[in-house]
Amino acid sequence: MDDVRWLNDREFRAWIGYRRMRGLLDLRIARDLADDSGLSEPDYDVLSNLGEAEGHRARLNDLAARMLWSRSRLSHHITRMQARGLVVKEDCPDDGRGAFVVLTEKGWGTIEEAAPAHVESVRRHFIDLLTEDEITTLGDITARVLAHLTNS
Length: 152
Fold this sequence. Notes:
Number of strands: 3
Helix content: 55-70%
Number of helices: 6
Number of domains: 1
CATH superfamily: Winged helix-like DNA-binding domain superfamily/Winged helix DNA-binding domain
Oligomer: single chain
CATH architecture: Orthogonal Bundle
Strand content: 5-15%
CATH class: Mainly Alpha
Distance between the termini: 25 Å
Largest sheet: 3 strands, antiparallel
């Protein structure tokens, strides 16, 4: 264990602070989202991803990959959202085993209604607490870490 590169006090403070902040921030924003719109974070993630997709539709496998979910997890969640009328599944004409997930009018209306309060929550609990320079630095940091994680 002599070759372990232990975190120094400054690194430990940054790491533990990040983990605690992420946990508390996720909980607060999820609570606000549920209180404001009745949506869970997974609901919002599905709806917002489909809302940004061309034609408000995406292949199930592509959507799962974009959301970093397993196909099985997404499929089960889509089934629950389908029962609420937010999305529908359609067969893929060129792949008998594939399926598209499509945002319904109700789903589009739900995300349009939920988005303003959700963005306000993100601003109130995170963005507005940072300076412009800190936001730029955070963007640079996340881009570097994401590039490392997606290329390794």
